[in-house]
Design a protein that fits this description.
Layout (H helix, E strand, L loop, with lengths): L32 E12 L2 E12 L3 E5 L6 H9 L6 E6 L3 E2 L5 H7 L1 E4 L11 H8 L6 H6 L4 H13 L15 H13 L5 E5 L7 H14 L4 E5 L3 H7 L2 E6 L2 E6 L1 H6 L1 H8 L2
Parallel strand pairs: 3-8, 3-9, 6-7, 7-8
Antiparallel strand pairs: 1-2, 1-4, 4-5, 9-10
Helix pairs in contact: 3-6
Length: about 280
Amino acid sequence: MTIAAAPGGGGAGAGSATDGRPLRPGVDVSHRAILYLESINVSFDGFRALNDLSLTVDAGELRCVIGPNGAGKTTMMDVITGKTRPDSGTAFFGQTIDLTRLSEPQIAHAGIGRKFQKPTVFERHSVFQNLELARKCDKRVWPTLTARLDSSAGDRILTILDQIRLHERADHPAGLLSHGQKQWLEIGMLLMQEPELLLLDEPVAGMSDDETMRSAELFMALAGQYTLIVVEHDMDFVARIADTVTVLHEGHVLAEGSMHKIQQDERVIEVFLGR
């Protein structure tokens, strides 16, 4: 892990989230923010996907990111997770972890988890087994084959089953779950990795109204304990869960604030919400 100079700022005490929960060693949120993106530029064959993008997210926050297709939302998440290297700019996880110098596995190990739009679960395994397979441990072949589930790991699985509301389906094959339940299971699998920051890409796409409502309740319950960045097109869902909304357009931040403020912004109406 590469250590670099810390961005400036001021705020909460070192080494803990805003709710007082201790963070893993190396994730320094003493200045409150857990993610800093500053002047990020990314180009693909002459197309500017990110254009001087700057964004700060506080520890424990539930931030929603919206914008039209091609606004740079996916590229932004690719930069945060190490899939794409920026042409210029800085990206820090906490005060000291320079994301631009780490590989994708190193970033995941540092505490950033990402969920893509389409759920990926082991459909022939039970819900419980999916969570067991996802737990944070030595993933080499022999340790994996000889690993035994201890009581603390078992307790954590039970806790997460309650959080994602799949306790009654713990022994069911994951392939028999509804689309929404598979989405929740994959979120549970991310939680088994003990992340600090979760990136969720269109998590309620294709869900029923009831599943969408339950997802809103889940995300609001996770906020504070974890930091969530949710990229979503469902504006009703965003309005239900977000304290702060960031609008991307042509690779940079067009507007930021409460959903009410965003809905009144003429620039946002013009390029995204429509009249």
